[in-house]
Amino acid sequence: MLRISQEEMEQFFEGLVASLQAQGVVCAITSGMACVKFGAALGTKDCDMLCAVNSADTFLNTLESTSLRGARCGYRSHLGAPLDTRWLSGGWTSHFAWRLADEEAALDVFGVAPRGSSPWRSETQGLYASCHTVAEMKRTDRPRDWPFATTLGVKLLRAGDPRGWLHIFDHQVLLEMAAEIPCPSELIAQRPVLGLLSSRDPRLVIALRGEVEFWQQLDHVRIQVYRQTVRSYVVAVKRDPRSDATDLRTQHQSRVEHAERLLPKNPLRDFGIDRLVREARSLAEQMAPQGSLHWLPEVAGHFVGLEV
């Protein structure tokens, strides 16, 4: 059997989104596949999707009836939450896959855009999330994601969207863009390091390093909060033979039953956003250059989608 090409994978997931949207589901492709669409990456065979939380049932029904080369969809991991409004609205992710003989097509479904500062549903671009939403989702704890955020920031600026200034984390690229496009003064309040750019302050280099370190630690702590609360649920799901059934509906019913007993619906709300930020800053202080955290942005607004 021929391996799945990048083109076939894109067509498959774009077809899935088109089918969902035709049923009234607000959803969009984001992250790696969106980076490919926007010209910020060369390729990926995994797909991340955003889905309006009140459409979880329709989304699940569509997954149940969608096949890839004859393979049916199933849950991919015991770690993820069931595709259910109650957990999607709390920031959980659901993981799925279509398993072929020697590879799989993987899908992660989010109800809330991690680190999103504005409603992603209001500015989707056809089948895809907006460049702005994707750039914010790339502020992860993985160093390899940050160049994508910068590339998307440049694309936003050249498309006339000043929010691009919020996504460029490379010192040299910031200087090059500042020579080409003026940085609006009002954005400095959102991202204080831009004040150093405007004044050509040499401390911009270490300020950027501190900013990136802080965002990475913020995402690290966020992930740990979910991992610490998911343990008993994972154990229960692994022990339940229904969780590995051949049909998606049986897998789902198993996960929902265990989640109702064992899986907190909104771990970050329970943990506290202020506490999350404090712990991330404390960790960043141990890793970042001295004095580099003086220009950090306010980040509480990046968690409004969790209804904290």
How would you describe this structure to a colleague?
This protein has 308 residues and is α+β, with helices and mostly antiparallel strands. It has a domain at 6-110: 2-Layer Sandwich (Beta Polymerase, domain 2). Helix content is 47%, strand content 10%. The chain contains twelve helices and six strands. The protein has a six-stranded mixed sheet, sandwiched between helices. Helix 9 packs across helix 12 (273-287). The chain is globular. The model has no long low-confidence stretch (mean pLDDT 95).
Structural class: alpha+beta
Report the sheet-strand fraction.
5-15%
CATH class of the domain at 6-110: Alpha Beta
Straight-line N-to-C gap = 48 Å
Q: Indicate the radius of gyration in whole angstroms.
A: 20 Å
Low-confidence stretches: none
What is the CATH topology of the domain at 6-110?
Beta Polymerase, domain 2
List keywords for this structure.
six-stranded mixed sheet; alpha+beta; Beta Polymerase, domain 2; 12 helices; globular; 308 residues
Summarize the structure.
The chain is an alpha+beta fold. 47% of the residues lie in helices and 10% in strands. A 6-stranded mixed sheet has the order 1-2-6-5-4-3, with helices on both faces.
